[in-house]
Amino acid sequence: MAGDRILVILIIVGIIGEAKIVAIAASVLLIIKLMKFQRFLPTLERRGLELGLLFLMIAILVPLVDGQVQSLDLLGALSTVTGIAALLGGILATSLNGPGLTMLRMEPQLMVGIMLGSIIGIVFLDGIPVGPLTASAIVFVLMRSYLWIKR
């Protein structure tokens, strides 16, 4: 029952905070639970991230397919300081996502803080939700920095 309450709270906060993805995700999970389809939850947990990343990658590649970005634009973008920074940012972000995901799997209770932080950022700082994977990578960097400073 505590899980149901948390999902309802997430739905309400998501609606109030205009975090539609949070509200929809919590709604889908609540429906799955209420309809007694819990047997699908392990599959969602195991494959949901892959499916989400697949759709994210598709969305990112659409400008290439519909002609918004030409192949010469790609090469030109990599010859500017901003383009090189974007390349390095992509490398850094993806390399940190792995350890972030590992940490999240080892300490799933961190998801509560990540979700609350995301909602606070959306509601009060006009932020855009980037997802728990990127947030867990940032948590990983923050924790590594904290442990390094603490030594």
From TrEMBL:
The keyword Ubl conjugation does not apply. It is a multi-pass membrane protein. Its main location: membrane. It is found in: Cell membrane. The chain crosses the membrane at residues 6-31, 51-69, 75-96, 108-125. The keyword Transmembrane applies. Keywords: Cell membrane, Membrane, Transmembrane, Transmembrane helix. It comes from the Bacteria. It holds the Pfam family DUF441. Belongs to the UPF0756 family. This is UPF0756 membrane protein ACFO8Q_10570.
